Every structure is written in structure tokens, then in C-alpha cells.
């Protein structure tokens, strides 16, 4: 559901960064359009949409329960099973409430973004192909960034084990 929300928001954010000047320039352009001719014109939008995507991802991290919180409870209450069960049940209730809130928020964001995107495509029908191509490019860029950061984290972790360096192991936390 989070992945679908991200894709939805990439399409919306990309549509938000189409300016009137850009649309009129595109409309009155006499250049022959090729499949990748949108790319040089869209670099600024790629950057802004990627920045907004990172910010949205950061905000979404607050909705989900922190793994460190659960680990601390297990470490703190490892001898007292009754207290451990009680605190885990409280966390489970919090998780349930957060997921329900997340589902409701996703539903409302989807409705609002569907309305915005329908209006955008009805008002600017000549931009539809470029909007779709640049939105898909943004999605691909974001997925490639996720893969690159995961790969960097893995490499740093493997090097820290090989060099037996705890400082290098802690460095990988910047990528996660």
C-alpha cells in the first residue's frame, strides 16, 4: 500500500511542477518530438519530485513503529514475561491504530489525487504523454536510488565485518 501511495504521489507531484510557461512553450514548440525529448526539459521536475518523494518517505517513517523501540522493550523486560506481554500488547494496539489511520489517509489522498490528475489531464490534454513519461522516469529514478542506497549499505556492512571496524558498521546507519 505504501508503494502504491508513493507511485500515486509521484504522479501528482510531477503534475504540480508543470508551469504555465513550460506548457505554453511545449504547445508552441515546432521541434519534432521524439520519445526522449522530454528528458532535458524535465530535469528540474525530476529533482523537485525526487526531493518531495524523499520528504514524504521521511514523514511516512513516523507512522510506522520503530524497530528500536521493540528491541528496547525485549531487552528491558526479558526477565519479566508478564510485563513484556503487556507492553507488546500495547505496541500491537498502537500498530493497529496507526495502520488503520494510514489506510484512511491513503484512501483520502487517492481520492484527492485522482480528482487533481483528472482535472490536470482534462485541462492540459497535450501534456498527457510527457507527464506520463516523466512520471514513470521519476518512479524509475526513485527505485534506482533505493537499490543504490541498499547496495551501498550492504557494501559498507560487509567491509566493516571484513575490517572488524565498529565505526564503519555505524556508518551504514546513514544510508538506512
Distance between the termini: 20 Å
Overall geometry: flat
The class by helix and strand makeup works out as mainly alpha
What integer is the average pLDDT? Answer: 81
| Topology order in helix (H) and strand (E) letters | HHHHHHHH
How does the major sheet shape up? none
Task: Give me the Rg, rounded.
Answer: 22 Å
Number of strands: 0
Beta-strand content estimate:
under 5%
When the domains are counted, the total is: 1
Number of helices: 8
Point out poorly predicted stretches.
Answer: none
Give the proportion of residues in helices. Answer: over 70%
Question: Any descriptors?
Answer:
about 180 residues, mainly alpha, flat
Write a concise synopsis of the structure shown.
With 176 residues, this protein is mostly helical. The protein is built from 8 helices and no strands.
Explain how this protein is built.
With 176 residues, the chain is an all-alpha fold. The chain has one domain (2-174). It is 80% helix and 0% strand. The protein contains eight helices and no strands. It has helices spanning 2-16, 20-27, 38-41, 43-61, 67-76, 81-123, 128-163, 166-171. Helix 1 (2-16) packs antiparallel against helix 4 (43-61) and helix 1 packs parallel to helix 6. The mean pLDDT is 81.
Fold blueprint:
Layout: H1 2-16, H2 20-27, H3 38-41, H4 43-61, H5 67-76, H6 81-123, H7 128-163, H8 166-171
Helix pairs in contact: 1-4, 1-6, 1-7, 4-7
Amino acid at each position: 500500500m505504501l508503494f502504491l501511495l508513493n507511485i500515486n504521489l509521484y504522479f501528482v507531484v510531477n503534475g504540480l511542477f508543470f508551469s504555465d510557461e513550460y506548457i505554453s512553450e511545449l504547445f508552441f514548440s515546432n521541434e519534432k518530438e521524439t520519445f526522449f525529448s522530454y528528458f532535458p526539459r524535465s530535469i528540474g521536475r525530476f529533482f523537485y519530485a525526487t526531493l518531495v518523494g524523499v520528504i514524504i518517505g521521511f514523514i511516512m517513517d513516523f507512522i510506522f513503529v520503530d524497530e528500536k523501540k521493540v528491541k528496547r522493550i525485549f531487552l528491558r523486560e526479558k526477565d519479566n514475561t508478564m510485563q513484556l506481554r503487556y507492553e507488546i500488547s500495547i505496541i500491537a494496539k498502537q500498530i493497529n491504530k496507526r495502520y488503520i489511520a494510514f489506510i484512511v489517509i491513503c484512501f483520502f489522498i487517492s481520492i484527492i489525487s485522482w480528482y487533481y490528475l483528472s482535472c490536470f489531464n482534462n485541462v492540459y490534454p497535450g501534456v498527457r504523454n510527457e507527464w506520463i513519461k516523466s512520471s514513470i522516469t521519476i518512479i524509475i529514478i526513485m527505485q534506482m536510488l533505493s537499490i543504490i542506497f541498499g547496495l551501498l549499505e550492504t557494501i559498507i556492512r560487509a567491509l566493516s565485518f571484513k575490517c572488524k571496524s565498529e565505526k564503519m558498521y555505524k556508518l551504514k546507519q546513514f544510508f538506512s
